[in-house]
């Protein structure tokens, strides 16, 4: 059975390569929702401190300028767009690029600092998932005006939708917020998040989405900032945080299987980010990396967003040697590894 699955995956990848050789993307459009893992610049236009539109962010991007991505270069979702055959990335919906024919390849609605828990976005004055859905409705109306209703329908139904959220809910809210951690256990809080997740997928489905990929939580206890702040002088991944992530991910899988059965015609794929990133962190040398405990930016221990800036002392010269770019987000090199993993597990979203 294993060899058959391997053959089918290889065969599908071959078809993909042949399709790309003809210069056409494999799907009509790509839409992104979620947090800083996929935000391509929406927060640039929001009054929040959660931004990345200044150096050294973006220093290894195509034009060597910050775009609002929380990375030195490309996000995993950028590599995914390239793997799907797009020659440009879906524009951040709040950017000036999100206009006219640029919208026909999709749009990016993600906002760093948001999550499945609406209050997480409120805490940081970012764009909640519910508001991201409202923006998506507005997008649909715009495309009807640009290309007509028939074209919108084919774009919407054939597109791939990527959702990445949940990390901010834990790391930037639950773990540091006594109004949450003194009221709910981590298990109870994850149940609340899963209810919001299910509602979000159902709402996205009602709006026409049929091919949805959702990322799991990463190993939260291995994020440099988490180890620094909560690790009590340890340099090891925090077992409790990782356990919380695994518990959430198990619920995410079970709920997604249930949603797939309930919603006719839906293909819902869970992308496991946890294990690939855990492998990079615990076995960096085996995967071509030099450093996994510290990030590239500044000391690599706590810097992220406004703390990771042009004045940060100690920023590394070569980010490709580091698993993490800042204390929360992977480097472009790590994102490439994650994106390649997504490609093989997301075949069913394309064919």
Record keyword descriptors for this entry:
351 residues, 43% helix, single chain, alpha/beta, 13 helices, five-stranded parallel sheet, Rossmann fold
Structural class per helix/strand content?
Answer: alpha/beta
Mean pLDDT: 93
The CATH homologous superfamily is named SGNH hydrolase
Largest sheet strand order: 2-1-3-4-5
Signal peptide: 1-23
Family: Belongs to the 'GDSL' lipolytic enzyme family.
Protein name: GDSL esterase/lipase
Keywords: Signal
Account of the protein in words:
- With 351 residues, the chain is an alpha/beta fold.
- It has a single domain (26-350), classed as 3-Layer(aba) Sandwich (Rossmann fold).
- It has 13 helices and 5 strands.
- The protein has a 5-stranded parallel sheet with strand order 2-1-3-4-5.
- Strand 1 (30-34), helix 2 (76-83) and strand 2 (106-108) form a beta-alpha-beta unit.
- Helix 2 packs across helix 12 (332-345), helix 4 packs across helix 5 (149-158) and helix 8 (186-206) runs parallel beside helix 10.
- It is globular and about 60 Å long.
- Mean pLDDT is 93; it is low at 2-12.
């Amino acid at each position: 059975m294993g060899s058959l699955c391997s053959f089918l995956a290889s065969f599908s990848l071959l078809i993909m390569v042949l399709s790309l050789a003809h210069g056409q993307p494999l799907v009509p459009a790509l839409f992104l929702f979620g947090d800083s893992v996929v935000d391509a610049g929406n927060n640039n236009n929001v009054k929040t401190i959660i931004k990345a539109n200044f150096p050294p962010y973006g220093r290894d991007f195509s034009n060597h300028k910050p775009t609002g991505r929380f990375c030195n270069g490309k996000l995993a979702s950028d590599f995914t767009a390239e793997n799907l055959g797009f020659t440009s990335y879906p524009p951040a919906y709040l950017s000036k690029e999100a206009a006219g024919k640029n919208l026909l390849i999709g749009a990016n609605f993600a906002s760093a600092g948001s999550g499945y828990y609406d209050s997480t976005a409120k805490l940081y004055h970012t764009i909640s998932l519910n508001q991201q859905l409202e923006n998506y409705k507005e997008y649909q109306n715009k495309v009807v005006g640009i290309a007509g209703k028939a074209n919108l329908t084919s774009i919407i139904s054939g597109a791939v939708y990527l959702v990445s959220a949940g990390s901010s809910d834990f790391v930037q809210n639950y773990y540091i917020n006594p109004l949450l951690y003194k009221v709910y256990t981590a298990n109870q809080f994850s149940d609340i998040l899963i209810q919001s997740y299910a509602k979000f997928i159902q709402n996205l489905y009602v709006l026409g989405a049929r091919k949805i990929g959702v990322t799991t939580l990463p190993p939260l206890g291995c994020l440099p900032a988490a180890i620094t702040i909560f690790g009590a002088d340890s340099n090891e991944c925090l077992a409790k945080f990782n356990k919380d992530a695994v518990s959430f991910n198990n619920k995410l899988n079970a709920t997604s299987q249930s949603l797939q059965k309930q919603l006719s015609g839906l293909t819902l794929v869970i992308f496991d980010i946890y294990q690939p990133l855990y492998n990079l962190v615990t076995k960096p040398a085996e995967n071509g990396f030099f450093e996994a405990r510290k990030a590239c930016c500044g000391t690599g221990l706590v810097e992220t967003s406004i703390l990771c800036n042009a004045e940060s002392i100690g920023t590394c010269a070569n980010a490709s040697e580091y698993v993490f770019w800042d204390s929360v987000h992977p480097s472009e090199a790590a994102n490439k590894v994650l994106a390649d993993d997504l490609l093989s597990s997301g075949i069913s979203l394309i064919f």
